[in-house]
Amino acid sequence: MKIALLGYGKMGQTIERLAKDRGHEIVYTIKEKIKNYDLSKVDVAIDFSVPDAAFENITTCFEQNIPVISGTTGWLERYDEAVASCKENDGAFIYASNFSLGVNLFFELNKKLAEMMSSFPEYAIGIEEIHHTQKLDAPSGTAITLAEQIMENTDRKGWRLNRAEEGEIPIMAKRIENVPGTHVVSYKSPIDTLKIEHIAHSRDGFALGAIIAAEWIQNKKGVFSMKDVLF
Ligand SMILES: NC(=O)c1ccc[n+]([C@@H]2O[C@H](COP(=O)([O-])OP(=O)(O)OC[C@H]3O[C@@H](n4cnc5c(N)ncnc54)[C@H](O)[C@@H]3O)[C@@H](O)[C@H]2O)c1
Ligand SMILES: O=C(O)C1=N[C@H](C(=O)O)CCC1
């Protein structure tokens, strides 16, 4: 595949290394607005940029008929508009708050556990996420996905950053140098605590998942998720 990398920071560079190992060609490494680039020779754009740029990057690709894989977090208030743009342009799109196989397995466990725990209101639910200090958004996109999955399977009505309110899920966000990404979902009662945890040891899992998604979306049209790709 001929790949355009939209965003060439920590993730863009990791994707470049792993994509080359899999025989792909990186034709653009873009660190700025993409309006002026001719992407017509590109098979797929992989966007790991910044929250302010993601929506414009993604929709510009749809207008140029390029499939998009996006992992940028912190722009999701415009996700529905991006989906509409994909459909209008008969495009192809996958967004995931986390592309790693491990986290996508963790998502499935999280949903199942929340469904089981919904019968036991004595357990207080909490989410903790830990990331490196350069991260621009909080809470992480992954933590928001985990909270939304719990809300769909319990009576919890919302989530809140760094504090707990009645009926909501607190998401505690910590920033520690060099941590690629850790997520913990816990259920605490006066008697015991139950926890599930995912610890990324590097960015390779996120990058590999995004490349696998880019390979999978070739010759497809529509809006898909990592669940479609992996399971
Ligand atoms: N979904 C996942 O699996 C996953 C995994 C890791 C990171 N992320 C997300 O990916 C994004 C990037 O993470 P990172 O650690 O590589 O960040 P980073 O800060 O290292 O890199 C971001 C890059 O985007 C570039 N950029 C700035 N404006 C741009 C624009 N208009 N168009 C294109 N590029 C632009 C910056 O110059 C930089 O090179 C973040 O939102 C992060 O939360 C998602
Ligand atoms: O390093 C980051 O930034 C990460 N962002 C994603 C998120 O916000 O969930 C995935 C994990 C790494």
TrEMBL record:
- Principal subcellular localization: cytoplasm
Sequence ranges assigned to domain Dihydrodipicolinate reductase C-terminal in this UniProt record = 102-230
What keywords does the record list, in alphabetical order?
Amino-acid biosynthesis, Cytoplasm, Diaminopimelate biosynthesis, Lysine biosynthesis, NAD, NADP, Oxidoreductase
Q: Which Enzyme Commission number(s) are listed?
A: 1.17.1.8
Annotated NAD(+) binding sites: E32, G71, T72, T73, A96, S97, N98, F99
| Highest taxon above the source species | Bacteria
Q: Which residues bind NADP(+)?
A: K33
Q: What class of enzyme is it?
A: oxidoreductase
Q: Does the keyword Methyltransferase apply?
A: no
- GO molecular function of the protein, one example? 4-hydroxy-tetrahydrodipicolinate reductase
Q: Where in the cell is it found?
A: Cytoplasm
**Its pathway?**
Amino-acid biosynthesis; L-lysine biosynthesis via DAP pathway; (S)-tetrahydrodipicolinate from L-aspartate: step 4/4
Which residues are catalytic? Answer: H131 (proton donor/acceptor), K135 (proton donor)
Q: Which PANTHER family match?
A: 4-HYDROXY-TETRAHYDRODIPICOLINATE REDUCTASE 1, CHLOROPLASTIC-RELATED (PTHR20836:SF0), DIHYDRODIPICOLINATE REDUCTASE (PTHR20836)
In the record, the note on similarity to other proteins reads:
Belongs to the DapB family.
Cite the record's note on assembly. Homotetramer.
Q: Which NCBIfam families match?
A: dapB
- What is the protein's given name? 4-hydroxy-tetrahydrodipicolinate reductase
